[in-house]
Design brief:
Mean pLDDT of chain B: 87
Mean pLDDT of chain A: 93
CATH architecture of the domain at 22-75 and 114-171 in chain B: 3-Layer(aba) Sandwich
Number of helices of chain B: 8
Oligomer: heterodimer
CATH topology of chain A: Dissimilatory Siroheme-sulfite Reductase, Chain: A, domain 1
Distance between the termini of chain B: 44 Å
Strand content of chain B: 15-25%
Shape of chain A: globular
Radius of gyration of chain B: 19 Å
Low-confidence stretches of chain B: 1-12
CATH class of chain A: Alpha Beta
CATH superfamily of the domain at 22-75 and 114-171 in chain B: DsrEFH-like
Distance between the termini of chain A: 27 Å
CATH topology of the domain at 22-75 and 114-171 in chain B: Hypothetical Protein Ychn, Chain: A
């Protein structure tokens, strides 16, 4: 566990950089989390993915797998890797302020 | 911009935005049964999902996984498998292997795991590199045309070692 400052807030994150307190997430925090992962700026298409992940996690209690994002939201695998080049499986959920996804695909 | 106040080594890497993209994994798939195909493909896909580079080398019976005429007909290998849920005397009876295969596929579907062909397409879309073993192709009289289109090409064993310099190796 460690503390980092994003968007002017001190935030606790786990070893994988996931927020420990989801209530601290704001769109500005997402911008900073994205910047850490080399994504600058977040585009409308990124936000579609982030919003879907947050909505789906709120509904299901766990962040969606990549396969679920492609099937339900309809963003193809290739595009997910273009949007989050350093690993969409980790980054979409991390930037969305969620926990690490449990799914293996 | 973000400032790091206090952090463990892992978080330093995360904060610096380095993640796992410096890691590479090379998986050698040498078996062609359903239960030997999934582990390699899922591990490679998970590596890509985390931003690691992933390369897969299909050789010997593993060629079945990328052979167009066989990929949809992989079987769960239960004979000679000490973990087989039923005694070999029963697993050896006609139709038992087909039944075990059907049950495994059904379970995978319930867990939202794609079939092998879809998983290979996903791997390709995810940027994993799939290679066939040149020697195994000659041995089984296979042509590039016999393979699924996601295979980038055929390599000799030495070509593969060159390509995977510095990678973590997994042999299945």
């Amino acid at each position: 566990m460690s503390t980092i400052t994003l968007a002017g807030q001190a935030l606790e994150v786990d070893e994988g950089g996931f927020l420990l307190n989801p209530d601290q997430w704001t769109p500005e925090v997402a911008d900073d989390l994205a910047r850490q992962a080399g994504i600058d700026p977040l585009t409308e298409r990124h936000w579609q993915v982030i919003d879907f992940c947050r909505r789906d996690a709120a509904e299901k209690g766990t962040p969606p797998s990549l396969r679920r994002i492609t099937k339900v939201l309809g963003v193809p695998t290739k595009e997910l890797y273009t949007l989050f080049p350093k690993g969409p499986g980790i980054l979409a959920a991390r930037i969305a302020g969620l926990t690490k996804p449990k799914g293996c695909v | 911009m973000s400032t790091v106040l206090e952090s463990a080594p892992t978080s330093d890497r995360v904060a610096a935005g380095q993640d796992e993209s410096a890691r590479r994994v090379a998986i050698i798939c040498s078996k062609g049964s359903l239960d030997m195909a999934y582990p390699g493909l899922i591990m490679a896909n998970a590596a890509r999902m985390m931003g690691m580079e992933a390369m897969i080398f299909f050789t010997f019976w593993g060629m079945d996984i990328v052979t167009a005429a066989k990929v949809d007909r992989l079987h769960a290998g239960m004979l000679g498998n000490p973990s087989s849920p039923m005694p070999h005397s029963i697993m050896g009876l006609p139709g038992m292997e087909a039944l075990a295969t059907k049950m495994m596929k059904k379970k995978m579907e319930e867990l939202d795991i794609p079939d092998v062909r879809e998983l290979l397409e996903t791997l390709d879309d995810a940027g994993a590199e799939l290679y066939a073993c040149k020697l195994a192709m000659e041995m089984f009289d296979l042509d590039d045309m016999d393979l699924i289109p996601q295979v980038k090409g055929s390599l000799s064993a030495m070509d593969f070692w060159e390509k995977t310099a510095g990678a973590q190796i997994v042999f299945i």
